[in-house]
Automatic annotation (TrEMBL):
Short name of one Pfam family: MerR_1
GO molecular function, one term: DNA binding
SUPFAM superfamilies: Putative DNA-binding domain
Coiled-coil features, chain-numbered ranges: none
Protein name from the UniProt record: MerR family transcriptional regulator
PANTHER family on file: BLL5018 PROTEIN, REDOX-CYCLING DRUG-SENSING TRANSCRIPTIONAL ACTIVATOR SOXR
Spans traversing the lipid bilayer: none
Domain of life, source organism: Bacteria
Cross-referenced CDD domains: HTH_MlrA-like_sg2
UniProt keywords, alphabetically: DNA-binding
Location of the HTH merR-type domain: 19-89
């Protein structure tokens, strides 16, 4: 029997963006696209937005959910039914509408997210300065 800790692979940080293609999610979660499509049928919580030509677009919470499903199946050895039950248990025990898998973000992902948030904060401050300058120009112009 293999050591489960050796089955863990480091997944890349999830970029701060709204939608991800199936190819991007495949890379972010180390799961092939056909597996993602299969999991969609097996896990009712997984509902990517479908646009033109049935192209799938996943949101951040769905990427986290896929990582959680991957962990349950590949690292903890759950069956599809077992993983489905575990996800349902988590949802019922949390009592909140928020997805329980959001709490499963790894330390390296949390660090990457804080870096992204810092960058976003700086960009927002720049936008505020630009808007203030435009107001001044409009006032005097």
């Amino acid at each position: 029997m293999s050591d489960k800790s050796s089955d863990r692979i480091a997944l890349p940080p999830i970029p701060a963006k709204r939608y991800f293609t199936i190819g991007e999610v495949s890379e972010l979660c180390a799961v092939k696209p056909h597996v993602l499509r299969y999991w969609e049928q097996e896990f009712t919580q997984l509902k990517p937005v479908k646009r033109r030509g049935n192209r799938r677009y996943y949101q951040h919470h769905e990427v986290l959910l896929i990582r959680r499903i991957r962990e349950l199946l590949y690292e903890q050895g759950f069956t599809i039914n077992g993983a489905r039950n575990r996800l349902d248990e988590g949802r019922h025990h949390s009592g909140a509408a928020a997805a329980p898998e959001a709490a499963e973000v790894g330390e390296e992902n949390a660090a990457a997210l804080s870096v992204d948030i810092g960058g976003l904060r700086n960009e927002l401050v720049e936008v505020q300065h630009l808007l203030a300058q435009l107001r001044e120009i409009a006032k005097h112009g």
